[in-house]
Amino acid sequence: MPDLRAERGAVAVEFALLLPVLVVLLVGILEFGVAYGAQISITGAARDGARTMAIESDPARTRNAVRAAAPALDPTITDSQISITTSAGALMNVCKPGETTTITVTYPYTFLTGMFGATVTMSGKAAMRCGG
């Protein structure tokens, strides 16, 4: 029969060796989940902006709709991070019926811990036909 006293403390040593790996794994899951949620918010904000521009053809209301669609982002989305274009190819203030408007939102996402880098640029893009 083996002497169990010779194994004393082995579990504590194994746990101490495995703990950093488990912590990194847990932090990675947390970082990915929060970043993925931010990406979904950014894409949803672009979609709401495209819908607003397609229906109302008003860039100011479109920018307000984009910001209102992503209230959880901190810092909030600024006007310079919102790009409004039409199928004519240039930045436009009017969305003519039959054209397609495209809203692109670019956002500098800051990681919570910095363990996987400081920031990453996320973008969301949505397009809709103008005029309803």
Describe the protein.
The chain is of the alpha+beta class and 132 residues long. It has one domain. The protein contains 2 helices and 3 strands; from the N terminus they run H-H-E-E-E. The protein has a 3-stranded antiparallel sheet, covered by helices on one side. Helix 1 (10-56) runs antiparallel to helix 2 (59-69).
Question: How would you summarize what this structure contains?
Answer:
The protein is an alpha+beta fold and 132 residues long. Helices cover 44% and strands 20% of the residues. It has one domain.
Count of structural domains:
1
Helix content: 40-55%
Q: Kindly report the spatial arrangement of strands forming the biggest sheet.
A: 1-2-3
> In DSSP terms, counting alpha (H) and pi (I) runs of 4 or more, how many helices?
2
Report the sheet with the most strands, covering strand number, pairing sense and barrel closure: 3 strands, antiparallel
Task: Output the radius of gyration.
Answer: 24 Å
Instruction: Determine the mean pLDDT.
Output: 89
Q: Strand share of the residues?
A: 15-25%
- Poorly predicted ranges: none
State the order of secondary-structure elements, H for helix, E for strand. Answer: HHEEE
Counting helices, strands and paired strands, the structural category is: alpha+beta
General shape: rod-shaped
End-to-end separation in angstroms reads: 82 Å
Number of strands: 3
Write the layout of secondary structure elements.
Blueprint lengths: L9 H47 L2 H11 L12 E5 L13 E11 L8 E11 L3
Antiparallel strand pairs: 1-2, 2-3
Helix pairs in contact: 1-2
